[in-house]
Amino acid sequence: MDEQGVDYLGCNVELTLPEDTLVGRYNAHTGFPVKQYLENENYAPTCALLVRREVFEEVGFFDARLISGGDREFGERVHEAGYDQGYAEDAVVYHPARTRFESLAKKNFRVGRGFCQKQRYYPERYGTPGIPPRPSGSGNDDEEGDELSLATRLAFAFLSFAMLTCRGLGYYYEFLFGEERDDIPAPTS
Questions:
Q1: Does the keyword Transmembrane apply (predicted)?
Q2: Any idea what DSSP says for residue 144?
Q3: Which residues pair with 95 in a beta bridge?
Q4: 85-96 and 49-51 as β-strands: parallel, antiparallel, unpaired?
Q5: CB within 8 A of 181, min separation 6: which ones?
């Protein structure tokens, strides 16, 4: 990380397809736009993150109360503390794409729950519980320049709607049935 002069470094994530399915291609297409996350939301997902020890010592660790979204919450604290964040395009992490609908739906349900939890614990940053945040990010541009067929675009649109629905269901599940976790301390900063 010294050559970048940063304390918090996001890496390029390339999703691999262990099995060629429509869901897998969708997940690979929408994947992890880490550079966009860093530029617009000041965080990198944990699968592609390097952090100096000193950062943890000052801002604290990930918030263990969060079922999802702890990487974003942590990245925002790092940014607010004034640490330099960077992106290393040439440092590549390979991550398997989710190839089954159930797996991707479960992830999105968990992400929805995490949105609500972040609002519960950090309303000053994420808003009031009961009003879900607007979705952020768009899919990656097709890096090879290949145009997606109309049928693939329609299938991806359906999957996008289905995953947004799963996030919404997770959000309202957490809103209605989730409990504040007093048994786990919040990170210190």
A1: no
A2: T
A3: 15
A4: unpaired
A5: 65
DSSP string, 29-74: HHS--HHHHHHHHS---GGGEEE-HHHHHHH----TT-SS-HHHHH
Contact 8, 75 (CB under 8 A): yes
What 176-179 contacts at long range (C-beta under 8 Å, 24+ apart), as own/partner pairs, is 178/113, 178/116, 178/117, 178/120
- Please answer whether residues 88 and 12 qualify as being in contact, where contact means their C-beta atoms are separated by less than 8 angstroms: yes
Is the CA virtual torsion 58, 62, 66, 70 positive or negative? Answer: positive
Report CA-CA distances (Å) from 163 to 104, 146, 171, 173: 8, 24, 12, 15
pLDDT along the chain (189 residues), means of 10: 79 95 94 95 96 97 96 97 96 96 97 95 88 49 61 90 94 92 78
Domain boundaries defined on the chain = 8-177
Looking at residue 108, its pLDDT comes to: 96
pLDDT tens for residues 91-127? Answer: 999 999 999 999 999 999 999 999 999 999 999 999 8
Whole-structure pTM value:
0.84
Contact present, 61 and 27 (Cβ < 8 Å): no
**If phi over 0 gives left and psi between -120 and 50 gives alpha, with beta otherwise, what is residue 151?**
alpha
Query: Distance between CA 81 and CA 49 in Å, rounded?
Result: 17
Which residue matches tokens 């992830």? Answer: 107
Residue identified by tokens 């736009």 is: 33
**Paired tokens of 133:** 């945040």
